[in-house]
Amino acid sequence: MSSNQEKINRALAERPWDNKTFFNRPHWTRRRFFELMGSGVTGAFLAERYAKAAEVTAAGGPATTIYSI
After folding, report:
1. Is 53 domain-assigned?
2. Residue 63 within any structural domain of the chain
3. Counted domains in the chain
4. Within 13 Å, how many C-alpha atoms sit on residue 3's CB side?
Protein backbone atom coordinates (compact mmCIF):
# COMPACT_ATOMS: atom_id res chain seq x y z
CA MET A 1 0.00 0.00 0.00
CA SER A 2 1.15 3.51 -0.64
CA SER A 3 1.89 5.91 2.18
CA ASN A 4 -1.04 8.12 1.13
CA GLN A 5 -3.46 5.19 1.37
CA GLU A 6 -2.11 4.32 4.80
CA LYS A 7 -2.68 7.92 5.95
CA ILE A 8 -6.25 7.78 4.68
CA ASN A 9 -6.88 4.41 6.36
CA ARG A 10 -5.45 5.70 9.64
CA ALA A 11 -7.58 8.87 9.50
CA LEU A 12 -10.74 6.85 8.80
CA ALA A 13 -9.94 4.49 11.67
CA GLU A 14 -9.59 7.45 14.04
CA ARG A 15 -12.72 9.26 12.85
CA PRO A 16 -15.23 6.80 11.38
CA TRP A 17 -18.04 8.07 9.18
CA ASP A 18 -21.29 7.38 11.02
CA ASN A 19 -23.66 9.82 9.33
CA LYS A 20 -26.55 8.22 7.49
CA THR A 21 -26.94 8.97 3.82
CA PHE A 22 -30.14 10.35 2.35
CA PHE A 23 -31.24 6.91 1.12
CA ASN A 24 -30.64 5.21 4.49
CA ARG A 25 -33.27 7.28 6.24
CA PRO A 26 -35.90 5.51 8.38
CA HIS A 27 -38.84 3.99 6.55
CA TRP A 28 -41.49 5.42 8.93
CA THR A 29 -41.12 9.13 9.58
CA ARG A 30 -43.09 11.07 12.18
CA ARG A 31 -44.88 12.94 9.40
CA ARG A 32 -46.00 9.73 7.69
CA PHE A 33 -47.12 8.22 11.02
CA PHE A 34 -49.35 11.18 11.83
CA GLU A 35 -50.71 11.31 8.26
CA LEU A 36 -51.82 7.70 8.55
CA MET A 37 -53.21 8.11 12.06
CA GLY A 38 -55.15 11.23 11.02
CA SER A 39 -56.69 9.51 8.02
CA GLY A 40 -57.60 6.48 10.16
CA VAL A 41 -59.33 8.58 12.81
CA THR A 42 -61.17 10.63 10.20
CA GLY A 43 -62.25 7.50 8.33
CA ALA A 44 -63.50 5.84 11.52
CA PHE A 45 -65.49 8.95 12.46
CA LEU A 46 -67.11 9.25 9.04
CA ALA A 47 -67.85 5.53 8.82
CA GLU A 48 -69.63 5.60 12.18
CA ARG A 49 -71.58 8.74 11.30
CA TYR A 50 -72.80 7.47 7.93
CA ALA A 51 -73.48 3.98 9.26
CA LYS A 52 -75.95 5.51 11.72
CA ALA A 53 -77.58 7.47 8.91
CA ALA A 54 -78.03 4.31 6.83
CA GLU A 55 -79.66 2.11 9.49
CA VAL A 56 -82.22 -0.26 8.02
CA THR A 57 -85.24 -1.72 9.79
CA ALA A 58 -86.27 -5.37 9.67
CA ALA A 59 -88.69 -4.59 6.82
CA GLY A 60 -85.82 -3.42 4.65
CA GLY A 61 -86.71 0.27 4.49
CA PRO A 62 -84.81 3.12 6.10
CA ALA A 63 -85.26 3.69 9.81
CA THR A 64 -87.80 6.28 10.78
CA THR A 65 -85.67 7.70 13.58
CA ILE A 66 -84.45 11.22 12.91
CA TYR A 67 -80.89 11.95 13.99
CA SER A 68 -79.79 15.46 14.76
CA ILE A 69 -76.40 16.30 13.39
Report:
1. yes
2. yes
3. 1
4. 0
